[in-house]
Amino acid sequence: MENNFGTNLRNLRKKNKHTLESLGKALNISKSTLSDYEIGKTSPPINVCEQIANYFEISIDELKFYDVAEKIAPKQTAASSEAGYQELVARNEKSEFQNRILQQQVEGLGIQLKLVRQLVESKDAENRSLRMQIQLLEEKLSEYRKEPSNHS
Length: 152
Hints:
By secondary structure, the protein is mostly helical. The protein is built from six helices and no strands.
């Protein structure tokens, strides 16, 4: 297997937006030593390999023997984690607000439905009343037609 340590270290550093100096500070390793590792001038001892692998949350085998360029994701920094958290909080608040609006709309539709039911009941009662009036008028008309013609 080919040793890809230097290439992987450079790719991980760049993917995570580190300079040699900033990564060196994070790992407590000089930037020139990191540069030597990246270009293959020197190889790090196993404890440094382990420290770097832990920092980037990968195994030592991945760091040394595999091409991790395709598989690596930027390491979450405290600032990006906080920004992500704030974004989730904002989304949650927006969802809760939209949920309250939808609940109010549902309540409004429930009230409208009750009013429509009352209107239908009122119209049904009005129709029954009109049918009874029609029936009474038909009965009077029928009686009127049966009476002898005194109406002239």
